């Protein structure tokens, strides 16, 4: 398997070569250059930063990685969990930041749907997409990783659904990584007024123990009255460093169901932000995490209510075994104009080991005076009586624990409208559960 990296290091010379290798409109190059300048200004996150105090990245060395070159990659691809048994309307495949395949059913293309390689579609439809890029949904100044992705994104997928077009077949994107590879994926989804779509997105390494670096971003734009179902599965190898900024804007009467599965990586630091920007917008956010070994998964979620009569419902569940650790920091922020807000967040943790650790930090910041905002968090161990009962019925201990874990996640699985997707997540988690 060949790799797609330049000499290690994100240097000015390497950045200039990266830009020269691409054929992009001037406005996009300007955005990249501005983000690159910000990348060079920003320091790496410090341990005393509130957002990073529980996540130690001192062993991560950014200068060991470099820009993708677009060189050919091998043909091996990881198994796709989300797409199995699903009749798809289109798909994209990326390997080490290089798009190696994209297709969209003709019936959707005929209705004006765009889906495929982000760079290719921007080159062909720059005038259409420029306003969405310039909205800067993910703030490139947020930290050094956000700036790097904004400056150097490569590969990735774009989905654009025109007004009042309902795509009733799921679309799928897969980003793969070779051992020692790099993924600078960017996903941009635009669902115009009154439109509907479902996108299944997953990342995976060729090798279960693969090394590498992911620095990604996801931007979801749900326009007035539109509906988007977005499923994102992170399934990197257990030596991959995973950093991502993910943000959605939901306009008036828009609806977003966003489900995250986090199973892989050595360390993950993800910011997931949902902004309800128009009246009567709604967001349902679901998270499933399973950790093992010495994995460290840190997720910061933010439900930001900017307009009145909006609803957000967040449910994150994590099961931890061995010496793994999860960190969940949740915030519901309600601006002063966002009266009649209805917001909820909950984080539940199932401890499968006495040496695992789960940190849950829910938070509320409310400036309006007519709201209903609540949060909750629980952590507990597997009930030995339940294990004993199952074993008296002929199950092995491991089978009993697997059933308990599956039941723990069932509340989230029940929220996923595509049965094959919830089954795939359940299967992937079940295969990781060991005797305790």
TrEMBL record:
Domain spans labelled SUF system FeS cluster assembly SufBD N-terminal? 27-171
Q: Which InterPro entries match?
A: Fe-S_cluster_assembly_SufBD, SUF_FeS_clus_asmbl_SufBD_core, SUF_FeS_clus_asmbl_SufBD_sf, SUF_FeS_clus_asmbl_SufD, SufBD_N
| Transmembrane residue ranges | none
Boundaries of each SUF system FeS cluster assembly SufBD core domain copy? 181-408
Q: Which SUPFAM superfamilies match?
A: Stabilizer of iron transporter SufD
Superkingdom to which the source organism belongs: Bacteria
UniProt record, GO biological process: iron-sulfur cluster assembly
- This chain belongs to the protein called FeS cluster assembly protein SufB
